[in-house]
Predict the structure.
Amino acid sequence: NAGVMQNPRHLVRRRGQEARLRCSPMKGHSHVYWYRQLPEEGLKFMVYLQKENIIDESGMPKERFSAEFPKEGPSILRIQQVVRGDSAAYFCASSPGLRETQYFGPGTRLLVL
Amino acid sequence: TQLLEQSPQFLSIQEGENLTVYCNSSSVFSSLQWYRQEPGEGPVLLVTVVTGGEVKKLKRLTFQFGDARKDSSLHITAAQPGDTGLYLCALPLVGSNYKLTFGKGTLLTVNP
C-alpha cells in the first residue's frame, strides 16, 4: 500500500508566478489535510478537504491560496502570485476517517526567488 | 491559543548515549502524538499517548505522558545514528478532531 504521494518534491518559482502542489492520498483515504512548515516554525494546519468538498480552510491565507480535492485525481494546493514569504515546506496528510491517524507525505519544498 | 513548547531545540550526542526531550503544553490536553521527521521527508508517527501517567515503549524509545496531562517526554536509550532527526510533538487543537498543532521540535543529531 503506497503512502501519501506528493509532487513535485521541490519547486522553484519567481515572485508573481503560480505554484501548484499535488497530493495523492493513501489508497482508501478520503480525508486530506494540508500543512505548512515555515523555516524555524512548527507545522501549521492550512485546510481540510474531503472529495469535492472543502471542510475547513481556517488556516489558509485569505488571498492567493486555494485548495481542491476533485472527484478524480489528486488534491491540489494552488498559490497564485507567489511571494518570498511563501517559501516553505508544504505537507499533505491523509486519513481514512475523521478522528483517525493522519499519515504525512514527503512534502513539497517551495522556494520563491 | 494552545501552545506546545519543546526542549531542547537542538541536541547533539555521541552514539550510545541516552537522552530525553520534552514537550510542554500551556493547557491540559486529551492526547498527544510524537513524530520523527527525517531531513527532506514528512513526519512519521511514532506513538499516541492518551492517559495521564501513561508510559509507552517502542524498542529503545520510551514515551511518558505527565500525570497532569500538560507535558510529555521522550527518552532514547543507547542512541544510534539512525535516530537522527527532528522529533515533533503534536496534539489536536481544542475543539477540533483533526487540526493538529505541532511544537517546533527537537533536532537530534547522533554522531557515530
Remarks:
- The longest strand of chain B covers residues 85-92.
